[in-house]
Amino acid sequence: MNTRNLIAGLTLLAAGIAAGWGLSNWRSNAASHDSASPERVGPAAKGERKVLYWYDPMSPTQRFDKPGKSPFMDMQLQPKYADESTEQTPGLNVSAQAVQSLGLRVAAVQERPIAARVDAVGTVQLNEREVSIVQARAGGFVERVYARAPGDVIAAGAPLVDLLLPEWVAAQHEYLAVKALGDAALTQAARQRLLLLGMSEVLVARLDQTREPNARITVTAPQGGLIAELMVRQGMTVGAGMSLARINGLSSVWVEVAVPESQGGRVAVGQKAEMRFAAYGAEVFKARVVSILPESSKDTRTLRVRIELPNPGQRFKAGMFAQVSLQGAPQTRLLVPSEAVIRTGKRALAYVVDGPGHFHPVRVEVGEEIEDQLVVLGGLSAGQQVVASAQFLIDSEASLKGVIPPMEAASASPQASYSALGTIEEISKDEITLSHSAIEALKWPAMTMGFKLDKPALATGLKARQAVKFSFAKRGDDYVVVSIEPVARAASGAQR
Fold first, then answer.
1. Are 421 and 435 members of one domain?
2. Strands 118-126 and 237-238
3. Where residue 414 falls among pLDDT bands split at 50, 70, 90?
4. Cβ proximity of 63 and 51 under 8 Å
């Protein structure tokens, strides 16, 4: 009896629990149904984001009208919402949390004057404008060479060599004989002959006083400076016009500066220059640019800028190095930090800040780099804010979402075409070998050469040994026939 009562009680308890669970589910379903009905849409439902289309993040240009699996990759399509549409608000939205975690910094585009300053290294060289060549005025012999050697520095008038000149002896005797006759015209002619032989006015005046011919002459330095070359030795025979020595003046020197080609536009003749030498510490020497040589170095791709520097006391020696600063007039330029510009081989991008967490890419044209700043030639304006750090991560996201500005289509420059007459030697659907006439525009003689065919259809109806008139253009490394037509054999006979 007790056992049956216990079983009955447990049965009733299980039935109650089941009834309660069923009632709870029914109420839950009813509530869900009511909340989903159009008549009872709450604020949350009204605030749902509108989906414009679905896309594959790995191929963002392909769009789909419904969700599903990407046909390109093993991944689900992602929705593109209306509130982040690149058509309505072109650019990229980044949450405040992402901005903070990336450590994103921005910088302003500044417009300020910058000095057209070029810093480079220069080398001291001898001033080639201060060169004297010492020559023999008449044929003779070297009797003595004074203690001189290349590299010596001498003063003006210093003796170099003693020469014995036999040609002078006969001319001096003739002059004295004519002068004794008392004929002024003949005397003047004889005197003029001595001067033409190379005798100086001083030597002729001495001859008038002493009346004794002198065949020896001491050759002296016409200016002070460095003996660059000494070409005579004792006992040598010299001829009229033979070079004896080369003397380079030292009153001034050249400082030749190697300026990179990219900075060559900021250098001009007459520009101020400041120079510092390791030998003279912080002392600054000032001069001006006297010339810019017309050829650049093929090896270093630098321009040769020449500065003339006074050299009192011969402080500057050939071969010394100088730190040179060329100062130009200040020019107003737009500047951005170098790190704010993403540069590739084809374009340069900067990300402009439109608002908190919103950026859009802009193609910019940049000029030279000044320390850690880039000169902006186009694409940005003063006062704009650009991303200065973490822009590579933003650029990757922008590439995935397809907001990178497309490359401008390169305008096709017209290609020059040339026409000629010829005879077909070989032909296929892609190539043709022609014996053609001379082409004056390209300075080609008559020859046989191969061409590419622009279209296989051009070969239709043509055959070997056929005379043709054709036009071609250069494309890359190939010459391509763009039009060809048969002509009468008489018209093409000249090309053979």
1. yes
2. unpaired
3. very low
4. no
